[in-house]
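Collaborator request, handled under Task 6.
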Amino acid sequence: MPELPEVETIARGLRPELIGMKILAADVRWARTIAMPSVRQFKQLIQGQVIRDVGRRAKFLRIQLSDFELLIHLRMSGDLTLKPGPIQPAKHDRLILTLQPRRGGGLRSLAFNDTRKFGRVWLTANAGVVTGRLGPEPLSDDFTPKWLSEALRRRHRQLKPLLLDQTFLAGLGNIYTDESLHLAKLHPLALSDSVTAKKAERLHAAIQATLQEAIRRNGASFDWVYRGGEFQNYFRVYDREGKPCPVCGTPIRRLVVGQRGTHICPNCQKE
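Structure tokens returned to the collaborator:
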């Protein structure tokens, strides 16, 4: 699943292309892709809307329109591509928006392709209805070492499942949680309320450094869904079972934490 760096990369790539374009029509190819409102209302309300901005909240793409926000969650296999002209739908296209450029020229098509059909799209005047329960952004001013230390100590949960909880901290997934915990030298099974203020400060720095580096490298390309990034070439532990730790040379170990495949260095991240 694309995580914060991948979604941020997609948003940054689409922003200069989409801003100012008018949405002429919506072709909904699979009704369940539209989570809100009904398909009929979606087609009616989105017609004529002008794209004002493109951004991200956690793992959601946020497209600000004249009167609404279009929220897109790519889930496991979603992809969003801008193509020239009206297009013939590809096999797994679930939604196609026909766009009129702001300075004339031919029409464009924004296609949401989703092989596994898990992705969802919301059109709403109040994005908080969808994103209101999300935790702070890990690259925002609200996410401070003090906040993290206090938030960890208020809970009694294993570190990795807690960091994956989007209501606790928004945007982290399996890859960047493993990478951040290794950089911070913390074990994923450690209990959150056992993390000292000093270790929380280390974890805060590791999360931000890992995400910033991943964004700089356009995220990580993985499976057959998201391509174009190169951060996978710089993984410290994720998907490197049996390979040497870049810090101490100990073979990376894979274990399961909260039903998620997890990669650690047993020497750097002592339980």
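The cover message to the collaborator said: "The longest strand covers residues 93-100. Residues 145-264 form a domain with the Helicase, Ruva Protein; domain 3 fold (CATH 1.10.8.50). Please let us know whether this matches your experimental observations."
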